[in-house]
Design goal:
about 325 residues, alpha/beta, UDP-N-acetylmuramoyl-L-alanine:D-glutamate ligase, 4-stranded mixed β-sheet, 10 helices, about 40% helix
Length: about 325
């Protein structure tokens, strides 16, 4: 066993001694499965015969579930509506054994739900036909923001890391993010950010995990090859005043850029014949942040995140990775 693999195994063993707060947009991922039956006579559309429904933790809730599944103590912090989707999300947290002390309920707010219609026969791969999103109207109410700030102060004071999971639904307001940084400074905790639409406003952090398309959109630099990825990544690092950038590149693996160090390109783990990329970014940031919180080097943390990402995309639906799966993957690494 190489020294690197031995170190990564020790890092995985240390996950259980860490506590991570995950603050962001809590989402219910709903899957409706149907078997193709016929073409409608009303319109040229496929009719599916309903077979089953599955609800899973999505968005920041999926990031929290990934931290929990990896063996660490997780503290999810976010807002839900007083609706059926919010109740189901709380039930999913309880079923997984994840605490909900940090979840605030707001009257009149819609809990985000992403409904994916999946079509396929019992022997065939089920494909996503369409997705329907139910979204809240805007940022939480001022009273909700105050409640979130109180939860942050009470629950995140002694964490080892804070993951900000921003899906564009307004949970992490500028005021809340400033409080995240204040708490992190006091606790000497790592702050990492995954933001779908507003990454530039999350400055002064330890790490961010954009994908290649987001990097290109944010910098205006085409990310066609390693040279341009590095150029764009260095620009974004400066703009964010971040210590690290972990760029996910799909079938081309990842790029790790360190503010005071090198740029390292990490090839994809496993095969590029992926099953489903849903929620893979949540797995990557959770594994990367947790490994950094264990004191491992950025390269080793990125390597573990790369392996975790390679494992999770072979699973269908919104999924997580077990420590045992990481250890098994290390044997093949």
């Amino acid at each position: 066993m190489s020294e690197t693999v031995r170190g990564l195994r020790a890092t995985i063993d240390g996950f259980g001694r860490r506590t991570v707060a995950v603050i962001g947009d809590l989402i219910t991922d709903e899957y409706l499965f149907g078997k193709p039956a016929r073409i409608s006579r009303e319109a040229p559309v496929l009719i599916l015969r309903f077979s089953e429904r599955e609800a899973l933790l999505g968005g920041a809730a999926n990031a929290a579930n990934n931290v929990h599944t990896l063996g660490a103590r997780v503290v999810p912090i976010g807002v839900i509506g007083r609706d059926a989707a919010g109740e189901e999300l709380l039930a999913l947290f309880h079923a997984a054994g994840i605490p909900t002390d940090g979840v605030v309920t707001e009257n009149g707010r819609t809990t985000p739900v992403k409904t994916r219609i999946m079509a396929g026969g019992y022997q065939a791969t089920r494909q996503q036909v369409v997705r329907l999103d139910r979204e809240p109207a805007g940022e939480p109410q001022p009273t909700t923001e105050e409640a979130l700030l109180e939860r942050l102060t009470a629950l995140a004071a002694r964490v080892d890391a804070i993951v900000v999971s921003d899906y564009g639904y307004g949970t992490v307001t500028p005021r809340i993010f400033e409080h995240v940084k204040t708490i992190a400074r006091r606790a000497n905790a790592i702050v990492s950010v995954d933001s779908r639409y507003q990454l530039p406003r999350f400055t002064g952090i330890a790490a961010a995990t954009p994908n290649e398309a987001e990097l290109e959109q944010l910098t205006g630099v085409p990310t066609d090859d390693e040279r341009t990825v590095e150029k764009a990544g260095r620009q974004l690092l400066e703009r964010l005043d971040a210590r690290m950038l972990l760029v996910t590149r799909g079938s081309r693996g990842m790029a790790l850029l360190e503010r005071d160090g090198a740029t390292t390109f990490i090839p994809i783990h496993g095969t590029d014949e992926i099953a489903d990329v849903t929620g893979a970014g949540d797995t990557v940031i959770s594994t990367f942040t947790l490994a950094l919180a264990c004191g491992t080097s950025p390269f080793e943390a990125a390597s573990l995140a790369n392996i975790a990402g390679g494992v999770v995309v072979m699973k269908r639906g919104t999924a997580t990775v077990l420590p045992s799966e990481l250890r098994q993957a290390l044997e093949e690494w």
